[in-house]
Design goal:
- The chain is an all-alpha fold.
- The protein has ten helices and no strands.
- The protein has helices spanning about 1-25, 30-50, 55-60, 65-70, 80-90, 100-115, 120-125, 125-130, 140-155, 170-185.
- Pfam families: UNC-79 (PF14776).
């Protein structure tokens, strides 16, 4: 498992290096295709890990009270680091000069693959984060963004837990903002 963890951490570090090069405009600037290849590789690693996980983490994902059980059955990789690197890259989307469509597709794949590995508080922030991509990604990715929201994020945020539970407040309160962004930025309402 040490080799897998080291390879995963190296790829996350590669994403952080892309971010630094973009933010400081260090030449050669990474293209969206370069970043997309690293994101696809990390997503494939996560899906491979998910195949090896005993039990059913998706069943645990639907119930907030079973979060610790779900996290205990997952191997120890830098999931938080991957989430942070992904969030940083989303901040610098306007600086990516080419390959934005492949970058966008890879981001949506990465977010979908990352969901079972994150703590619930991070999962609750993903719908808002993904919906902000509507403002920056090409319009051809709008159906993919909406599908990611509806099929991969909402079932594990607003569909998980009791609505009266204070832990579920952030997820339910962000839904109106997410819907407003979807309606504002989509061309086909």
């Amino acid at each position: 498992m040490g080799t897998r963890a080291a390879a995963f951490s190296a790829k996350v570090q590669n994403l952080q290096d892309y971010y630094i090069r973009l933010i400081h405009q260090t030449q050669p600037l990474p293209s969206g295709n370069d970043i997309a290849n690293t994101l696809k590789s990390l997503s494939a690693s996560l899906l491979g890990v998910l195949k090896d996980v005993p039990g059913q983490p998706f069943v645990f994902l639907r119930k907030r009270e079973k979060e610790q059980q779900r996290l205990n059955c997952l191997p120890s990789l830098d999931y938080r680091g991957f989430h942070a690197a992904l969030a940083q890259l989303l901040e610098v989307i306007p600086l990516i000069t080419s390959g934005i469509q492949s970058f966008g597709q890879a981001v949506l794949l990465a977010v979908s693959a990352l969901v079972p590995f994150l703590e619930q508080d991070l999962i609750d922030t993903l719908p808002y984060t993904v919906s902000t991509c509507l403002a920056f990604f090409p319009t051809c990715l709008q159906p993919d963004i909406i599908q990611c929201l509806c099929c991969h994020l909402f079932p594990y945020t607003i569909g998980a837990g009791d609505y009266n539970d204070p832990a579920n407040v952030q997820a339910t309160q962000s839904i109106s903002a997410v819907l407003m962004m979807v309606l504002q930025f989509t061309t086909n309402n």
